[in-house]
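tokens incoming
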């Protein structure tokens, strides 16, 4: 079996030598760094129908239509459609039966002269998997992490070549395609925080799994998808919004999960600078909470994704086991208030010193990072099954050495008790619900929202869980 190339020049040459591939390149914002590889590799006349850089905003508007922002998905999609349709209009009559046409586009904000801008870009390819086939698309969003403009341009060119090569030769294996996007690069240079596959060539692809793979492979620290399963680009959806996040296993979503988020949201939106309805409420799953044993069980992940979809909330998958890392990630995109809601039991664990052994400043550094960006914790009570006692902010027992720190944070208003909770839900625990589902025991239906129960029953979710998962 011939080993596939991993270097950009070799990839570009292989595309150039494929007689069936022919298309256009449209690049805005960082030079023509992608098409340059194809020109330099040799044989470019067999691949490149046109190369264009509509760098001026008025020129770009005249070709692709006006857009609110120039480095955004909307602009990228307009470029892809326009150039692809133009290829078909001009070339399909002569060579449509033997050619799989494509249009590649990117719109990028590389490092400016003063180094003050967000360095990121949208790249995409609209292509035919075979001659006469309907078009499919791959769209990605990248953050460029190099400190020099020239290095960012180089990295952009490489990831663009990887994307085109993947569309041409790896479209039958999307997970391998995603992994190949970083060939010749490293996560120190490029972060890929969104990939979406669309069209007949990817009819069997679940973009939620692709989002999971981005985080699992280390291409991004987090990925997002909407309640309907569509992929979201974090900076566009978190940008300048108040954010409230609930972390959980959601195996499955219970009344407790929704009550915690809804009650926290009521308190969160009482803050003086937040208008009702403007907060983005997010349910977050860490990679740690997705592992079943040593591996990630994709069927289990899909079950959780399906029940989260039923609730209507945005989902974030992250590789941030520490809360302060999650807080730093969210603060990257917004200067508005950030809230995290958790149970009292989780808050108690947050004060265990061993979680901060890897930090030079220990637990004090950890909490300094956590509360750095106007963040507040909203605490849901925990009801002890044995005694029925409620653990709340005012009576929570943290490790004795941390009591002064805990009292300080409470008095400073960094930690707040959720008041509008439903006490009837406090006896519900997700492991008990999961066990009833797996063992076909009645009664679990009353422990979850009706839409979640219906989703579990209609789609037969969580039935693959083995006995050890619920014991």
């Amino acid at each position: 079996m011939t080993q596939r190339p991993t270097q950009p020049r070799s990839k570009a040459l292989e595309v150039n030598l494929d007689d069936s591939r022919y298309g256009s390149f449209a690049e805005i914002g960082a030079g023509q760094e992608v098409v340059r590889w194809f020109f330099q590799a040799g044989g470019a006349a067999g691949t490149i129908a046109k190369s264009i850089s509509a760098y001026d905003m008025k020129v770009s508007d005249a070709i692709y239509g006006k857009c609110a922002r120039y480095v955004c998905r909307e602009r990228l999609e307009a470029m892809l459609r326009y150039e692809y349709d133009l290829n078909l209009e001009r070339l399909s009559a002569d060579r449509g039966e033997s050619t799989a046409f494509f249009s590649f586009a990117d719109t990028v904000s590389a490092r400016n002269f003063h180094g003050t801008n967000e360095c990121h870009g949208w790249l995409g390819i609209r292509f035919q998997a075979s001659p006469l086939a309907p078009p499919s698309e791959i769209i990605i969003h990248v953050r460029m992490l190099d400190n020099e403009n020239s290095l960012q341009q180089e990295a952009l060119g490489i990831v663009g070549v990887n994307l085109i090569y993947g569309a041409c030769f790896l479209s039958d294996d999307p997970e391998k395609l995603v992994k190949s996007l970083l060939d010749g690069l490293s996560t120190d240079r490029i972060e890929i925080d969104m990939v979406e596959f669309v069209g007949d060539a990817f009819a069997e692809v679940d973009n939620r799994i692709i989002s999971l793979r981005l985080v699992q492979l280390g291409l991004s620290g987090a990925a997002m998808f909407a309640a309907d399963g569509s992929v979201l680009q974090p900076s566009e959806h978190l940008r300048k919004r108040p954010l409230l996040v609930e972390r959980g296993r959601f195996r499955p979503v219970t009344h407790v999960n929704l009550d915690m988020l809804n009650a926290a949201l009521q308190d969160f939106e009482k803050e003086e600078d937040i208008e009702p309805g403007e907060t983005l409420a997010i349910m977050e799953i860490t990679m740690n909470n997705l592992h079943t044993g040593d591996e990630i069980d994709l069927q289990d992940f899909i079950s959780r994704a399906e029940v989260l979809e039923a609730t209507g909330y945005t989902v974030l998958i992250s590789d941030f086991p520490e809360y302060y890392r999650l807080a730093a990630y969210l603060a990257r995109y917004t200067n508005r208030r950030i809230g995290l809601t958790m149970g009292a039991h989780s808050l108690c664990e947050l004060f265990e010193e061993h979680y901060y052994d890897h930090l030079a400043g220990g637990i004090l550094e950890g909490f300094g990072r956590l509360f750095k960006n106007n963040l507040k914790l909203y605490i849901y009570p925990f009801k002890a099954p044995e005694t029925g006692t409620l653990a709340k902010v005012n009576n929570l027992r943290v490790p004795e050495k941390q009591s002064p720190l805990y009292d300080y944070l409470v008095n400073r208003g960094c930690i707040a008790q959720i008041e509008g909770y439903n006490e009837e839900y406090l006896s519900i625990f997700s492991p008990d619900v999961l066990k009833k589902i797996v063992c076909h025991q009645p009664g679990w239906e009353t422990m979850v929202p009706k839409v979640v129960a219906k989703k579990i029953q209609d789609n037969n979710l969580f039935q693959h869980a083995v006995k050890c998962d619920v014991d």
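note: The chain has two domains: 8-205, 236-470.
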